[in-house]
Hints:
Keywords: Membrane, Transmembrane, Transmembrane helix. This is ABC transporter permease. The chain crosses the membrane at residues 20-38, 50-73, 94-117, 137-159, 166-186, 198-223. It comes from Amycolatopsis dongchuanensis. There is one protein chain. By secondary structure, this protein is mostly helical. It has one domain (1-225). Helix content is 82%, strand content 0%. It has ten helices and no strands. The protein has helices spanning 2-14, 16-38, 47-50, 55-77, 80-87, 90-122, 131-159, 162-183, 192-197, 201-225. Helix 6 packs antiparallel against helix 10 (201-225). The longest helix is centred in the middle third of the chain and has 33 residues, at 90-122. The two termini are 20 Å apart. The model has no long low-confidence stretch (mean pLDDT 87).
Amino acid sequence: xKHALAYEWVRARSLRSTWLLLAAAGALHFASGLYWGLKRxxxxxxxxxxxxxxxxxxxxxxxxxxxxAAFGLDHEHGTLTTTRLVLRxxxxxxxxxxxxxxxxxxxxxxxxxVLTAAGVLTGGGALPADPGAAGRAAxxxxxxxxxxxxxxxxxxxxxxxxxxxxxxxAGWTLVAETALAALVRVPVTALPFSGTAxxxxxxxxxxxxxxxxxxxxxxxxxxxxxx
Length: 227
């Protein structure tokens, strides 16, 4: 497994898209933090937690694209055969990609939180006096980026196309969940992506469960379809 992790880490870090996507997510959060830090009429709101309103979802989408690339680019460039020859086991391949992507997702989440705080302070704002509120906001971002990255790995393995997989993830998170909440009256806290963004236990649990099932399906598909 150590060899598989090393192989996947070399692949991930050698891709320019890995660092561009993480940098873009960080830049979005710094800009949002700066915007809210410059505001002086927040009332009972605080700049730090308010800055995560929309950009945390966009940042998570960028991290999901990073996860999609783990499989999507292999399929599109015809390098999956080489990966299979080197690592052999589909379980080893998917596990290594999931672990490396989870690590990158965690790094991306930390980067997003830190740069949001930096943006708020640069704009002259203040961080929350209540550490619990800041902790919940940061925890939601970390859960969202890690799970989104893993969901991207699974979608990349199942759909075998980078654009299609990213589009499917974006369609669910930005359109389908909004429609379910507005038209079907599904509680936002029970929706996988939106619930995780709110740090709701139900939504986070649903998202984690879906990720496990999707990764298992990607492993089975790799063994059956690409064997």
